[in-house]
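tool=predict chain=A
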Amino acid sequence: MKTARSKDGEPPEDWPDNKRSQKDTDARWTKKNGKSSFGYKNHIEIDSQNKIIRKYSVTEASVHDSNVFEELIDPSNSSKDVYADSAYRSHEKISWLEEQGYRPKIQRKGYRGKPITWWEKQGNRTRSKVRSRVEHVFGAQTMKAGNLIVRTIGKARASTAIGLRNLAYNIVRFSFLMMKSGAISAVPK
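tool=predict ok
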């Protein structure tokens, strides 16, 4: 007998406890560029100068990036420039940033029948040089771990695993920065 999830996302009540304990009922599906993924997202805010993760948030994969935007803004950050990709661009977000005293540096996006202008493309190119540093963090995590898959059940455990991965990245990055500055000579293996 095939049972499915109810519309509210909860598993069917007739599932036995053993089956229920093996299913991640907190995780959700998402689709990006035609590829479906099940699980969680790691949203991060970094120091663009040193590539250190300053804040992070873990959500179900179905949560849009823009929903955690305000949560990731760190008021203790000395820079008031906020770089983000076009998924975060909206009149509300830009107004909120300006009200808080930030300078939005969010990528422009085109719309059907109204592509971005040459000047907007040049601005996007300039902003991408800083914004791409976030992708370097995910690339480094992928290189170290081999992938970004978290094999846990439940959001609490996934958040812990992702938080530890972010912490490990920061430790490695900090060690690199210390060696580069000459503060330490080598990191023991």
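The chain has one domain: 24-181. The radius of gyration is 20 Å.
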